[in-house]
Write a structure and sequence with these properties.
six-stranded mixed β-sheet, 335 residues, 14 strands, Metallo-beta-lactamase, Chain A
Length: 335
């Protein structure tokens, strides 16, 4: 049987997750932002923790762990390279390793960018990916410690997961992400439909995560831009995670997320933008005027305010404005 997964709201906008294997009664906690609501969720269901999976070291993902372990001694699992700043680990893992929750086996994926040593956990039998602050609903995590290239690689790995994978991210940032996405594609019907849906959910106090990878591929500007750019620049792109698909996600009819006229039109439009940037960069036309005009065209209504100069010569310029927690969007590198 697939894992039974419970979303536990914590702090002001964090999410923790309880993943329960009905066959073995084993239960894992993914991240521990706050002890009280997590302990309450366990008590109500009569579950005992067997494992704690930590995605990264940020305080809002681990500060409830001490109190939780006092009542539920459990195996703590985290990235080996981040062990020096994580709570004490019982099992240190790296990319490609596996973890188990009862009879369910998950794969560890290194998704560095937000932090160095950030990991995600993918359980294929349960069609679940716990991505925390890497891939989020309609966005991605802010790049604090890693590089934009790291985030680029991380999003490519996650985008390779099947379209029916449920994406369990670490924060309720969907409305803010949606506002940013709408400035890029104000007429995207899938995006507009999702914005209406998540707005209704939040008005009723409901969580907007998880979402499916297929939905993210249709409405998440960060992952769409990343995957489409990579696919166009390198059609034989190979995914570098052991055990992961080595091509774009395919569905029941054998087609990828981009094998439809609508998707191809959107991809072509974005590719035109990418090609223009690349051409200007290679021609050496670096003037501030060019970046101001590009920003004004890409983000209607922003005019010429607060336009930063490009910070690198081989990559997409950081000209796009974004919400507070997306203030440093990843910069896709040119292969």
């Amino acid at each position: 049987m697939p894992l039974e997964i419970v979303t536990v709201p914590c702090l002001s906008d964090n999410y923790a997750y309880l993943a329960h294997d009905p066959d073995t009664k084993a239960t894992a906690l993914i991240d521990a932002p706050e002890s009280v609501p997590i302990l309450a969720a366990l008590t109500v269901r009569g579950w005992r923790l067997s494992d704690v999976l930590i995605t990264h070291h940020h305080e809002d993902h681990v500060m409830g762990l001490g109190d939780i372990l006092k009542q539920h001694p459990a195996q703590v699992i985290g990235h080996a390279k981040d062990a020096h700043r994580l709570p004490p680990l019982d099992l240190a893992v790296a990319e490609g390793d596996t973890v188990t929750i009862g009879g369910q086996t998950g794969t560890v994926i290194d998704v560095s960018g937000h932090t160095i040593g950030h990991i995600a956990f993918y359980f294929d039998e349960s069609q679940a990916a716990f991505t925390a602050d890497s891939l989020m609903a309609m966005g991605c995590g802010r790049v604090f410690e890693g590089t934009m290239h790291m985030m680029w690689d991380s999003l490519q790995k996650l985008a390779a997961l099947p379209g029916d994978t449920m994406v369990y991210s670490g924060h309720e940032y969907t409305i803010a992400n949606a506002k940013f996405a709408q400035t890029i594609e104000p007429h995207n019907p899938d995006l507009l439909s999702r914005i209406a849906e998540v707005t209704a959910q939040r008005s009723e106090g409901q969580a907007t995560v998880p979402s499916t990878m297929a939905v993210e591929l249709a409405t998440n500007q960060q992952i769409l831009f990343c995957v489409q750019a990579s696919h166009r620049l390198n059609p034989r792109l190979e995914w570098r995670v052991p055990g992961m698909p080595r091509s774009l996600p395919r569905y029941g009819d054998g087609k990828t997320a981009f094998d439809t006229p609508k998707a191809n039109n959107i991809a072509q439009m974005r590719w035109n933008v990418i090609a223009t940037w690349k051409k200007k960069l290679e021609s050496g036309w670096w003037s501030t005027k060019f970046w101001i005009l590009m920003r004004a065209w890409l983000v209607p209504g922003t005019g010429c305010k607060n336009v930063p100069l490009p910070i690198q010569t081989r990559g997409v310029p950081t000209c796009l404005h974004s919400p507070r927690h997306l203030s440093r969007q990843f910069i896709p590198p040119w292969p």
